[in-house]
Each structure stands twice: as structure tokens, then as C-alpha cells.
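Quick one:
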Amino acid sequence: MPSVRAGEKTANPLRILILGGTGFTGPFQVRYAMERGHKVTVFNRGKTRPGELPEGVEQLIGDRNGQLDALRDRTWDVVIDNPTSVPVWVRDAAQILKGKVDRYVFISTISVYAENSKPNDESGALAKYDGADAMKETRETLLASDFRLYGPLKALSEQEAEKWFPQQTLVLRPGLIVGPGDQTDRFTYWPVRIDRGGEVLAPGDPKDPVQFIDARDLAEWTIRMVEKSETGIYNATGPGTQMGVGEMLGEIKTALRSDAAFTWASADFLEAQKVAPWSDMPVWVPPLSEEGGLSRTRIKRALEKGLTFRPLAETARDTLAWFRTLPAERKAKLKAGITPEREAEVLAEWHKQHEQTPG
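Output:
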């Protein structure tokens, strides 16, 4: 299903406040909203991508850690909360914005679900917070927990938004967000590696499901949901129909006109070699693992509300083009994916055990 472009301007321009707006998905939200004719204000520290906001965007400077004065005595039709990972951020902003905005959009995550070994729809049980006081958690304590608290704190942040803005809250739960601008390299690894060509270590069975969403598709759908005054909870990942990791890698190869040859190593072999899913082999998780349900998240509700996807080939080409613009030292060390040296070792061991040639 193709992505919906900006096209005609909306018949009902809105005043949109975007908390963040300069990270990964934020700039795409800003640009699409402006193209559609909305009036956009962003609130952030002014440290990320300074000077890159489109003409006509209002920027308010502040900090979610207690420096919110710039939000006082203002009104907007809707606020989009992108960066929140701790519930105190929602509470503090809501204390100022309640009665000043008509709707609150919270960008959450499918990591909020308690059970990830099976597919979840929006009614799935949520992860429980087991700490002393969620309102005392900070970005720093979240990082110190090695993101163990990420899902539970996002779930509590959703609930905080709904508490302050009952019947006015839209919660979107993305899966893996990919595309140009992604600093995690959790998808970028594959276009970069496949473009390099040669024998490529590929994980599991080609039919193992994968899910992801281009940041631009998520951002644009968010704005369209805002325009339609939608509320409620929606899983937001893709593609529109189930895709196997083999299809994903094959489409990237075709898009980049690469000579890559995939050697498929089983999940058991990769585990024995200490090659980790998701980090060493990005996007992929073994379907029978404790996290296997994350690649089969149910998105029927979002599809019914117009979530669309651009072709994977476009995402792959644009991601690689963006990556090539980065400084040499950044490109030299990807933040996800197996290193070339370790990949060669694992491939050699696979061939030793299986006497198999790549194909």
C-alpha cells in the first residue's frame, strides 16, 4: 500500500505543538504538517539540529526536566509528545497544558506489552513497573537500567496522558522505526552491508517475520490522525502484510543493485556463536523466542485508519543515501549489526560445520 503524500492543503488548519520536533520522527512531522497548511510550534532545548527548522515554524526553548515556562499562557489545538520516556514528563507538561489544548497525542511503543512471545493487539496486558516511585524515574535512571524499565515507564506515561486528558488522548505504539536519520543503525546496517556486497550472513529462516515502519510514514500518518481528531490506542508498525526476513533482504538487494549472496544460518547456530538477534542481526528476532511476538504485532486498527507504507526499496535507498552523508568516523563504526571481522569468523564456522557454499 503506497504512502500518502502531502497533496492538497487541509481544509481545517490546526495549531500544533510538537514536544521535541528535532529528533528522528519530529522533523518529518513538522515538514508534513507545514506542507498541509498547519501552524507548527516546537518545544525543545534547541541543541539538536539547530537552525534546521523549516521557515515559518515557531521554536520555544525549554527542557522537559522542569524548564517549561515557555509553554505557559499559550493555547494550541493539539500537542504531539514525541520524546517522553518517563511519566513525570507527561505530568509536568499536562499541568501546564490542560485546558490549553484540545487533544494530546502520545508516541509510545509496542514495548509496552507484558508478553512478547505472541502477537499483541491493542488490548494486550501492559508491562508492570516494579520500582519504588515511577514519578522519580528520570532519563538517567532509565539508561542505568539498560532500558529494562523502558516498556513499563512508557506504559505509565500513556496512562498519565489519559489521566490528564480523558477522551482527548491519542496513543500511537510504533514498532521499530527506520529510515534516513535513524542514529541507532538498527535497520541501516542492512542497506550498508548489502551494498558492500559479497557473502552476507543472514539470520534464521527466510520466512521468519519482520516488522518495521519508515519514520516518514509514521510521522505523516500521525498528522493525518490529528486532522481527523482521532483518539484511542493504535499499534503502528508495518508492512501492511506479513514480510519474511528473506523478502526484506531480497528487496534491499534489488533496490541497491547489489551482488550480495546470503548465507542463512539457523537461530540455534547463531545462538551457539553468540550472535545476538536484534543487535548483531538487526530487525530479526527468532519467531519462537520470548520476543518473537514483536515481529507479528497486529495492526488491523491502524490500517483501517489509513496507515500506509512507502515501498521498502525507497526506504533502503534513502537510508543508504543519508548514511553516506555522515562523517567518516561515524560511518566507520555502525551502532548495530555484526562487525565485518566477526561476520567472517561466523561464516567460516558455518561452512566448516555444513560444507555449504553461499547462494
